[in-house]
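Internal ticket #5521
Category: modeling
Description: The requester needs a full-assembly model to guide mutagenesis choices. All entity lines are attached below as received. Residue total reported by intake: 1767.
Assigned to: D.W.
Attached entities:
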Amino acid sequence: MYKISTDHLTELFSSISHDRALYMPIEKNGQVQFDRWMEDKKVRLDALNTVKSPKDLFFPQSENIVAFKIKGKNISIIENRDESEPFVVFGVRACDAASFDILDMVFLQDPVDTYYKARRDNGIVVTLACSEPEETCFCSVFGIDATNPSGDIATWIVDDMLYWESLTEKGERFTETIKDLFESADFLDEEALKSHKEDVEKIIEKLPLHDLSLDGFNSEAMDEKFNSPKWEELSEACIGCGTCTFICPTCQCYDIRDYDTGQGIQRFRCWDSCMYSDFTRMAHGNPRTSQVERFRQRFMHKLIYFPTNNDGVYSCVGCGRCVAKCPVSMNIVKVIKAMGVDENV
Amino acid sequence: MQRIFGLIKDRVGALLADGTVDRVIGWEKGEFLYDHTPAIFNAEDDLVDLVYDGFCASNLSKYLIDESKKDGKILALLKPCDTYNFNQLIKEHRINRDNVYVLGIECRGMLDIDKIRALGIKGIEKVEEQGDELYIQTIYGDKTCKRNEVLLEKCINCKGKEHVAYDELVTSGEDIPQVESNRFEDVEKLEAMTSDERFAFWRGELSKCIRCNACRNVCPICSCVECVFDNKDSVVASKANTDEFEENLFHIIRAFHVAGRCTDCGECSRVCPQGIPLHLLNRKIIKDINEFYGEYQAGQDTNSLGPLTDFTKEDVEPSIITEKGGEK
Amino acid sequence: MQKIGVFVCWCGSNIAATVDVKAVVDAVSHEPGVVYATDYQYMCSEGGQSQIRQAIKDFGLTGIVVCSCSPRMHESTFRKTAISAGLNPYMVEIANIREQCSWIHKDREDATEKAIILARTAVAKLNLNRPLTPGESPVVKRALVIGGGIAGIQSALDIAEAGYEVDIVEKSPTIGGKMAQLDKTFPTLDCAACILTPKMVDAASNENINLYTYSEVEDVSGFVGNFTVKIRKKARSINADICSGCGVCTEKCPSRKAKDEFNMGLSNRGAIYIPFAQAIPNVPVIDREQCIKFKTGKCGLCEMNCPAGAIDFKQQDELVERQYGAIIVATGFKPISLENFDEFSYSQCPDVITSLELERIMNAAGPTKGKLLRPSDNTPPRTMVFVQCVGSRDTSGCGKTYCSKICCMYTAKHAMLIKEKYPDIDVHVFYIDVRTPGKNFDEFYRRAVEEYGVNYIKGMVGKVAERNGKLLVQGSDLLADDQIIIEADMVVLATAIEPDESARNLATMLTASIDTNDFFTEAHPKLRPVESPTAGVYLSGVCQGPKDIPETVAQASAAAAKVIGLLAKDKLRSNPCVASSNEMLCNGCSTCENVCPYGAISYVSKEIRSAGKMEVRRVAEVNEAICQGCGACTVVCPSGAMDLKGFTNKQIMAEVDAICR
Amino acid sequence: MCNCNHSADEALIPGLGVVTDIRVDTPDVKTFRVNALDGGVCFEHMPGQCAMLSIPGIGEAMFSITSSPTNTKYMEFSIKKCGCLTEWLHQIEVGQQITIRGPYGNAFPVDTEFKGKDLLFIAGGIGLAPLRSVINYVRHNREDYGHVDIVYGSRSKDDLVAYDEIIDEWCNEDDVDVYLTIDREEEGWDGHVGFVPDYVKELKFDTNKTAIVCGPPIMIKFTLAGLEELGFDKTQVYTTMELKMKCGIGKCGRCNIGSKYVCKDGPVFRCDELDELPDEY
Amino acid sequence: MSIEKTEDSNFEPLIVAFCCNWCSYAGADLAGTSRLSYPANVKIIRVPCSCRVNPMFILRAFQRGADGVIICGCHPGDCHYSTGNYYARRRMTLLFSMLDYLGIERGRTRVEWVSAAEGVKFSTVMNEFSKTIHELGENKKLRDLRCKEFLD
């Protein structure tokens, strides 16, 4: 466990960014998002979480896959994927860190997605524990301890001291390279950190959503939940935009498209949303014609389908982004509350 | 705000009971005190969840496009700014007028939860309104603030308290202060910048866009059966901002498709998760239309020709833009 | 994938001089879709065209690109070549590498590079062309002439002569129009009625012509070749079939107070009247405001005295609906009202009259039986003053800005006739400029001045005031440069003429365009003066602009010729590059309907399968016969449902891409 | 053997194939023969598996490989014209290069459940394409399997895919019975007339067979009902599913039905597995 | 982040001109027949009427690397379709104002009314416009980089 005073953070950041790109929550045009660190950038470690989740650093919104050049009947393939170089992402919250594990379950599962894997290997995740969770947070429901985030290195900010503890071997190796900036933390610091964690835990207990119950959401309940009449009423307000899927740290659906650049064809991958009407549209029909079915698919996938395939791990980390940002305030919490209650009660 | 809600609730109950309407579209209580969801109430009994307070900003006129296609009559609770969109949709034959009974409800301006958070108020549990004071109970203690400190951008530039389309009005009789503001103030500020500064400003803003289509799907005017950006046969079909240009293209084309039809209801900026001031694009076109072709408020009536589908022989020449000022 | 043949023309040396034709052929042969590329000295020559035909057969081409001169020159030629080779004519694209490339760029390398880009653009567009076949619509072999003046009659006679059925709709009880009110006509001074009445009789007797007098056009719909017109036959209260035209009823009628419109109100007429002796049809009409039977229910003398029993008080308006292939507008003119010209005190003193009133006074069938008498006291005048350009060439806003063209000539005619019949009357004419632009016009005017001693004063009249029975005309004499006052017995104002008041709503019915003075706008002032931009609508007479009788008759025959040309065809081939709406994408928002200059878009509700279930939707439909293919609707349509065949969004985008590659 | 230049774990990067022959089967179905650039097949596959074909700039779609794995000279795809990519494919000429990647999806359990069983193939229209791969594989290793019945129907005679191969090879193969039918009476056709599901019920197959059904959704629904009527239980009937697939490796979420990904866990399903899934296909 | 204006002289601007078939295209032809030259980097696309030009076409031209776009039509009042250019005039005014508002250089887009008889005017306008674009330099603000640098 190391520590460094918060007023030397800029020094720490510049030394890290010496040989590696450093990303962290930075305010730009009034919006906090993960951006590359520069001296003049306004660092915002106090913001609860960014709207666009750090998933973007590993699974970017759009990235080149391959390009083709067509000459008459012949095609030549050009590999012009965006090469990923080593980088550090600092200030990741516990929920986002947990979302990386969920994404790993998808992309690193055979057949491995090499684009994602390259970025995951090159990236070092430095998490920062929350100190002031908000009412929209419910990560505790999914067994995520906000005060002890996962990731390669965990950090805590208590008063004006930053505690730095590497959790994985990759984190260890990285800490070695910048060890001289830190002092090692003594017993007193451990105590201060423990009491800080208890305070935060007390607050988490007081969060309105912390007692959300997930029983009733398991693979046996698939048919019962699928055919429940409640989906109609829950989805009547949904306007079918992609906000909840694009800001969600665990949504992993993507689309592959070709773009004719005039010089050749660029095949790229970009985020896609199951809420869009053309998500499952085929040449001769669409299995999910109305918004009710698309709405149901999203929450059934997160709460039942994904856990069935990944031994019980839900595809939601309770970060509360969709609770805060849905244009019509319909979100997974309301679905859990509406669907979780037993039918006959 | 409680008085007007009581009146509305009784009126809605009465209309449901005597069968003039068979369902109501309004707002339903959410988890917290500020996340109300538009909802349709069928029978008189489940009105218990109906709510109308400072957080019912969403514009219900877009739902009426599909709802008015169904048989039976629906009661729509429309705020003054929503009725402009209602009129515009009637003009475009998108709403079946006789399947909708419009109840014009009074509005004192809606609150913006992000502004409340920006004041440093976190962990919000309860919000009470007394006059123009807000008492907010949070897990970090109770906080208070002024109502018009945290008004939504579209309510600061409110277009006025009269409804332009209603079958019946519900008012509480309290006089609602008409807040004076120059809605083109931000546009003028931007116009005063040099063109490079403006380019930097808009690059900064539009680069935040994550193409979630919330602005398009919430806009009552942007309600094509199939949008050009989704229809793969169209020439601009695209789903992601793979390049700086795509970010501009989406917003310019959208601004143009609603040009002359946008009622400046401000919903696009309210729902943008990345906080992009999209209304400044539409408001610029409205300012130009007013300046070049005379005051025009879309949705004021249901039969006038939109500015882009009308002309006069003496219209100003496009070269006016290039000569408008020195190199700024 | 298309199979495209590219043919680059040398155009002798016009192109080959500054464009390396071989390089263009070589560069364009690698474009996607191109299977054959060649060049030739004169593509538009017979040799060139046969080469194209041969290539189409040999390579089974599905489309050809010709890089040559402007499409406005030879597009039709190469389309005919394609047809002759069995290829759809709209699978031909022209790259303009002469007027827009070789002739204007000196540097050979630049010109060649641009020619390659233009050729590439044409190929890119052709790749997305679809074969188009012009739509056809039937032609109703009947014409409609609105207005029964000399213009309408002449057009109707010419069309009937060609064997087609014609209907004339005239709103007054008789045909003849303004010309019937004239006495003599310039420059030959032959009597207006003598040359008009034979034509009226011909029109009445011609079995191809149907007269709808005392009728008005109420509604026009449909399009060129197939107009549907609703005509309101106003009730005459007389059964025209059994009326012999004896006129007994007009004598017996006790109500005498009505002002006779035909005599410009200078005399009275009965409630039941025939406008003038030679009226066609020679059937009286009952003026229901004046007729005592209609006002009080008593009287009915005319019914009692009518030998044929033709009076029928219960007759109602009748609405007739008929189909027409073409419509000729001949609504004629009327003098402007003089209420904003009270400086001439026209309304105060009866002796201040307009020229048309003078025509009636001098006409033998007029109120004074042809004797020139002052309307106030029926005494012959000693001095007469004519005032020109009353309300014409007037920029002050109360009159018309244009010159009414015919006043100078008819005033010279009046002056000459008066001096000839009453040599001792002093005739003065105040004028700004005397305009005599026609054949023998100026000689006629010079005779009036030299032979008959008419005193022409160059100057404007400031005021006309009555003082003890005399009219003091105060005007300026610019040549003598002083103010003069003339005591006159009568003052004749040459009032401006304006289109008949029925023109404005008729134009909206026909979607024809009219200018700010309510004259119908012609398709092209020099090249298409008798056609309106709206297909199938033709203009004849003063409704298109001030003109005299010779010009009116000339234009009437021209309009008739155009109509005959149209009716001669059984089928009308319409331009296939028209808009078409994709009903799956149409929102039914009517934005396109609002911008269509031709009203070619209508809305229907249709059953459409969407999202798995059938739904009734309001969708746009384009009438391919009316649409001219301007494309305004395609741009206001947000969802891209409306597209223009021949210039689709994708084609133009492909052209932009090809240019910027 | 396959030298398509894509490394094993580059799942989304396609290899190149060239169309060496195009056979017009029916007015809207053509069979394309695809080889690697220098001959041979692009990759090995098992019967029932699919491949992602694409023409860059037009689109990419999943097609079932209709040739049998035992055929190492070329790979065949029977493609019906019903979308913009298929329409473009129907316009190309021999020698056109396309991109190809795969194999994707699970295969028919030819080496496990099917071994030694009597097989009943039921196909409708273009549905024959995936089954043709299995049929030819079974014919190639004839001794491993029992009696083979093939019931194949289509709208009309010239809508029967691979008609001459059926008549010349399959019909006169011993221990293989072929039953052909068309929907409506047509002169020049003396065979059975009627829909496939009714024909299956008419033939009253005994129930110790393993049935493999493929065709348009309505036909599958009625055929399954018919088989159940004859006494087949769900574990004996297999079918392949037709859904939109994009990545082919179970990640992009397109073909997600219930907890299964059709492109990875399917497209071949046993009917009882199918019932576990929510009916959203 | 201001874009510096390099004045490299060998920069060859690419200009796309949309000409209406009845007036300005005929004007261009007349400029041709009277041999009035203008720079070769102006390429003309023929459209039925100036009202057919969709803002998407203009943005696509800039996206693909055009440096200037000019829309030519008949003089207001002479439109072959009587009202086409009135609609185009309003739409282009708003489009240019929007592009200027987004910070794109004002001179890059232009509307010009050229009748079929004004060959001289057509060539002077094209020369003038090409000069303005040359001064403005390459279009860097409204450009899709994927279309430019994608060279194998």
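Resolution: model delivered.
Comment from assignee: The two ends of chain A are 50 Å apart (CA to CA).
Ticket closed.
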